[in-house]
Amino acid sequence: MDVRWEEAGWERLTGRAGRRRLPVWDCTVGLVVGDESVLLVDPGSCVREGAEVRAEAERLTGRSVTHVAFTHGHFDHVLGAAAFPGAEVYGAVGLAELLVADRDELRGDAVRHGLAADEAAEAVDLMVVPGHAVSGEWTLDLGGLQVLLANVGPGHTGHDLAVFVPGERETVFCGDLVEESGEPLAGPDAMPRQWPAALDRLLSLGGEDALYVPGHGAVVTAEFVRAQRATLEARSGVS
Hints:
8 helices
């Protein structure tokens, strides 16, 4: 156990990767540390929350966050990005255009789920969209560590991105393709009939022994991901 990380409320997963479960929506923020650069996976739900995450990340790593990856476009996973000026931002191809087109819906969704109206308005007004569109796989060199960004969707949304971190045990940041704290949530933008195939791609890239980090909830194994795939398969009626 890394006491410094644990005392700050973060869970150290491997020598290179850790995460924090943010309050209110139990949304996971991932932190991946290279020799030269630092990647944050999902920056939180608003500018205030993003700023808190940035301060904690800088304190834990001694460096600024240089890269941000969005696992998908829901408010609790993207609206904190304005707190990371200068960071290179990555998302699945098409996500940037969707976020711009759906600004009003994004703000409304945040407020409906309990974010204060003024914080939602500020976050959407300052919203940062991905400058780098991942259509297949993108290898990101953080210095001594090569991280794979993989467009494995659609599934939970039309623009699902997973982050694969090599190490003593591969760590896979799944976004909301995998949820441990409840049943997988299929909102109006979900593609349930394609979701099981997205999990197949996730498992194929991550392998049997990886740590799978859900968008919400505790870290799980490949066995859990397969069980959730079976649930989604039964729900959607596809194999």
